[in-house]
Amino acid sequence: MKKYLVIGNPISHSLSPKLHNYWLKQNNINAVYDKIKLEEKEIEATIHDIKKQKIAGCNVTVPFKKKVIPFLDKLSIQAEQTQSVNTIIFENGKLVGHNTDTFGFDKAIKSLNFNMKGKKILILGAGGVVPSIVFAIKKMGVSEITISNRTKQKAENLKVLFQELNILEWGNLKNFDVVINATSLGLNNEKINLDFSKVGKNKLFYDVIYNPTETNFLKEGKQLGNITENGASMFIYQAFEAFKLWHGIEPEVNFETLKLLKND
Ligand code: ATR
Asked: Considering the entire predicted model, what is its pTM?
């Protein structure tokens, strides 16, 4: 039986096994998908197991999306430009790193039918998922992309990958058309201590977090008269694209799939 994995640290919260195992069963694929918490020094050996095909493929989550890169033979364009890998496949004798988070974010926005053309975008945070979001947004014809992060230097560092980014001091909110929460604030019901009334009304408030379903950031965005969306479909579509890369099949995305993420 083929074995797939998601590696990260922490990993207990990951819903990837639930989603992939559901799709494996639905498509009668004789394989199993597991999660493993790794220490950094164990990454190389785990990736070696993919080369030996003891493990058929692997998803990578925080904090290893960049750290796996030195052990791979080839990167997709998305992985190269974001310096971030979330899916590893073994193809023609080579270990290839892909980034399907970019696809996930793109699909999530498209399924909202929200037109990003000419819009001013603010991303809060500068952690692991942000390069993937910037990569996807750059292709949407937006007018500007601004990053605001508590630790300003980390936002500045992102300019090495994307020179066109604007950096905004944490706490200095102003008018934007879209605000994306890519910080970890909200995972444990924390509030983001920013004055969101400065953003204006009828904007899009998007949270990468999907559990809880409605973070305080989204609650406040809604109260202020904005459209809100959580990260559930981004999560599902990054998994969809990884599944397609490994198995050559597009798994079904429907109400049942969304429910899988809510039952936890
Ligand atoms: P990593 O930084 O290891 O990639 P992450 O979960 O991807 O981890 O990112 C966490 C993000 O949430 C960071 O942007 C972090 O800001 P810092 O770079 O300043 O640490 C942000 N974050 C976490 N706690 C925060 C807080 N209390 N206030 C503001 N931002 C916070």
From this structure: 0.95
Cβ-proximal residues to 92 (8 Å cutoff; 6+ apart), any chain: none
Asked whether 223 and 192 are in contact (CB, 8 A), the reply is no
219 and 193 housed in the same domain: yes
pLDDT of residue 262: 80
Ligand 1 center–CA 188 separation, angstroms: 13
Query: Which of 183, 194, 215 maximizes ligand 1 atoms within 8 Å of its Cβ, making it the mutation to test the pocket?
Result: 183
Pair 106, 226 in one domain: yes
Residue ranges making up the domain that contains 248: 2-99+233-262
In this structure, the residue with its CA closest to atom 12 of ligand 1 is: 183
Among all residues, which ones are annotated catalytic?
A: 65
Check whether residue 216 and residue 244 sit in a common domain: no
Q: Are residues 7 and 69 in the same domain?
A: yes
- Rounded CA gap, 204 and 225, in Å? 10
Mean pLDDT on 112-133: 96
Distance 264 CA to ligand 1 centre (A): 24
Same domain, 141 and 193: yes
CA of 184 to the centre of ligand 1 (A): 6
What is residue 263's predicted lDDT score, i.e. its pLDDT? 56
Query: What digits encode the pLDDT tens for the residues 185-206?
Result: 999 999 999 999 999 999 999 9
| Mean local confidence (pLDDT), 14-41 | 97
66 & 25 share domain: yes
Rounded to the nearest 10 degrees, the angle between the axes of helix 232-247 and helix 101-112 is 130
Q: Which residues lie with the beta carbon below 6 Å from any ligand 1 atom?
A: 62-63, 125-129, 149-151, 154, 183-185
Would the CA dihedral through 88, 91, 95, 101 be positive or negative? negative
Tell me: the pLDDT tens digits for 72-87?
999 999 999 999 999 9
